[in-house]
Design goal:
- The protein is α+β, with helices and mostly antiparallel strands.
- It has a domain at 33-127: Immunoglobulins (Immunoglobulin-like).
- Helix content is 22%, strand content 41%.
- It contains 2 helices and 8 strands, in the order H-E-E-E-E-E-E-E-E-H.
- The chain has helices at 2-22, 132-142; strands at 28-30, 34-41, 47-54, 62-67, 72-75, 86-93, 100-109, 115-125.
- Strands 1-3-6-5 form a 4-stranded antiparallel beta sheet, with no helix packed on it. Strands 2-8-7-4 form a 4-stranded mixed beta sheet, with no helix packed on it.
- It is elongated.
- It starts with a helix and ends with a helix.
């Protein structure tokens, strides 16, 4: 009787294990989740790209990409990303705003991890807004 029970449990565990392997899931794996713009000048190119791979065994569908503010505009892929394929999320930061960059972009998908937070950071400076002293020194050097 005990042997039969053990045999039934063993067969049950094996079939459960094979069932788990057959489950189709998309997995999103980013090359990096943080992009550092560094120090950039006002009006410079604010476009950066987050690259990712679907490391799962089902098509990956990105349903939405949201930013914490209107100064950052993310763009998501329209089509599903097949297993093993790569995709990208483009982020455009408005570099007319002179200030530190600290923004989060949230990616929503059908992946095993349904939400992923991406971050951009850096500093936008205005090279024309240097101090009066700097300008005086420049004009004296130029003469």
């Amino acid at each position: 009787m005990m042997k039969n029970l053990i045999a039934i449990l063993f067969v049950g565990l094996i079939s459960l294990g094979s069932f788990a392997q057959e489950k189709k899931v998309a997995k999103i794996e980013f090359k990096t989740t943080v992009i550092d713009y560094g120090t950039i000048e006002k009006g410079s190119d604010g476009v950066r790209t987050f690259e990712f791979t679907n490391t799962g065994n089902a098509p990956l569908v990105i349903s939405n990409v949201k930013s914490t503010c209107g100064c950052t505009v993310p763009k998501k892929p329209k089509d599903p990303i097949m297993p093993g394929e790569t995709g990208e999320i483009e982020v455009k930061y408005d570099t007319k705003r002179v200030n530190p960059i600290r923004k989060t972009i949230t990616v929503y998908s059908n992946a095993e991890t349904p939400t992923v937070a991406l971050k951009i950071k850096g500093l936008v400076i205005d090279p024309d807004k240097t101090s009066v002293l700097d300008k005086k020194e420049k004009s004296m050097i130029e003469q």
